[in-house]
Design brief:
Elements: H1 2-50, H2 54-65, E1 68-73, H3 87-93, H4 96-99, E2 106-112, E3 118-126, E4 131-138, H5 141-190, H6 205-260, H7 267-299, E5 307-310, H8 311-328, E6 332-334, E7 341-344, H9 346-362, E8 368-376, E9 379-386, H10 393-396, H11 408-413, H12 420-430, E10 436-440, E11 444-452, H13 456-463
Parallel strand pairs: 6-8
Antiparallel strand pairs: 1-4, 2-3, 3-4, 5-7, 8-9, 9-11, 10-11
Helix pairs in contact: 1-2, 1-5, 5-6, 6-7, 7-12, 8-9, 9-12
């Protein structure tokens, strides 16, 4: 950046300098010479017109203008009436270049006198009068000022070049240092070092925005990497859990089949082993069905088909199916709710109620299980509450993970797959809703979620 700026500024300064020295200076010298020659021509005309009074006219002009006027005759014409020249004046007028002048030529020479002061000598030849007229004078002040202006202009350009170079170096340093910092930070990001804090000292809003964007990029990468690491851990746990959950029923079925092949096995034991094998086969089938259901919910959002239905009617239907299981454990299942219309996928929400109520029955030894709901603005809040054993606080964050069990031994004995709450979460996420849980160990658990409420007006519009 510094070299580029210096190149452009240097080119401009050199161009202006060449113009000053090669063109402007020449123009000033030409103007000076033309002015002096015009002045000498006018004085020559006065002298020619004076006739016999030339000597007096020359003296008067010299006195009035302060010019040192020298006149000599060249050729056969007499020099009568001309002032006598001093040796120095004669030396000037006898120069070969002066004596060789023609009518259309002028001799202009800038010299220094004995005191070192600049003077200008101009000589012209007047063929009509046969006179060579020389004028010696100090350099005109106007041209001295112009020459000084040229010198000042050159010095100013040099100073401008130096200041431009210094300024460009400072500017490039202020720009490149933050960019180098940002480049190093970006390099750290590519190397996986995402914890470095990006700090740039600059007043440029563009560079500050760039630094903030790089910082946000690093933060996003860090979050995504952490998420990928978390998902990798979950995937490893998931694969381990699936293999474990599948292996156990397969080993059990294999053992029961081998036992059934024994010729010494009695009918009662044969029946028992067959029932056990069928139970494990059913457990394996449930496991695969749940896994397929989760996969479908994750990758096929179009499986959710929403429509308006009566939520109370659906809850009653699920309660009727699960009430025998609750009665078998001596539990009271309460699902008394007024009719209310919601918009959702009825079959999927039925799965939610089945999993939540069945889970409450499985983990409750006594007491009551309630499924209730109430309206909150444009939502219906649904709650499934039990008075069972409850869940420890350390389990609440992982309760919806696949295959996570609070009591692994008991859940396996009950035939659960460990995927019920995961399916509940997937179904509600597909409805753009969330599942929540509150639990106190030894006192019970409460699950709740919300569904869109449909009023009578909206229901009529939907029907139309």
């Amino acid at each position: 950046m510094f070299l580029t700026f210096a190149l452009f500024v240097g080119t401009a300064v050199v161009g202006v300098g060449l113009y000053v020295f090669l063109i402007l200076r020449t123009q000033i010298e030409d103007a000076k010479q033309h002015t002096l020659v015009d002045q000498a021509t006018r004085i020559a005309l006065r002298i020619e017109d004076a006739g016999p009074d030339r000597k007096q006219v020359i003296a008067d002009i010299s006195r009035l203008t302060g010019l040192n006027i020298m006149v000599t005759a060249r050729g056969p014409m007499p020099a009568d009436g001309l002032p006598t020249l001093s040796p120095d004046q004669q030396a000037l007028m006898q120069r070969p270049a002066v004596q060789a002048l023609t009518a259309d030529q002028a001799y202009v020479k800038q010299e220094h006198n004995a005191s070192g002061e600049p003077i200008v000598f101009v000589a012209i030849f007047r063929p009509e009068a046969g006179l060579i007229i020389g004028i010696e004078q100090p350099e005109p002040e106007l041209f001295a000022v112009a020459r000084n202006m040229l010198v000042t202009l050159v010095l100013g350009m040099i100073m401008a070049l130096l200041m431009a170079l210094v300024g460009s170096w400072v500017a490039s340093d202020r720009v490149t240092k933050p960019l180098i910092t940002i480049r190093k930070s970006a390099q750290h990001v590519t190397e996986g070092k995402l914890d470095a804090i990006i700090r740039v000292d600059t007043r440029s809003s563009e560079i500050q925005d760039l630094a903030r964007n790089v910082a946000r990029m690093s933060e996003n990468f860090r979050e995504k990497i952490n998420e990928l690491e978390r998902l990798t851990r979950l995937q490893s746990e998931f694969i381990g859990n699936v293999s474990h959950e599948v292996r156990n029923p397969i080993f059990a079925i294999s053992g029961y089949l081998e036992a059934l092949g024994s010729p010494n096995l009695g009918d009662a034991m044969r029946k028992r082993y067959a029932e056990k094998g069928l139970l494990n086969l059913q457990r394996l089938s449930n496991l695969f069905n749940d896994l397929i259901e989760i996969a479908r919910l994750e990758y096929r959002e179009d499986l959710i088909k929403t429509r308006v239905f009566d939520l109370a009617e659906l809850v009653d239907e699920v309660a009727e199916m699960l009430r025998p299981k609750a009665d078998e454990k001596g539990l009271t299942l309460v699902v008394t709710n007024p009719p209310v219309k919601v918009r959702a996928d009825r079959n999927r929400i039925r799965q939610v109620f089945v999993n939540l109520i069945d889970n409450a029955i499985a983990y409750s030894d006594e007491g009551t299980i309630r499924c209730r709901f109430r309206r909150r603005l444009n939502k219906i809040r649904v709650e499934v509450v039990d008075t069972g054993r409850g869940i420890g606080e350390e389990h609440l964050e992982r309760i919806f993970e696949r295959f996570y069990r609070v009591d692994p031994d008991r859940s396996r004995r009950s035939g659960g797959t460990g995927l019920g709450l995961s399916i509940v979460k997937q179904i509600l996420q597909a409805h753009h809703e969330a599942i929540h849980i509150e639990s106190i160990l030894g006192r019970g658990t409460r699950f709740w979620f919300e569904l869109p409420y449909v009023g009578e007006t909206e229901e009529v519009k939907t029907a139309v």
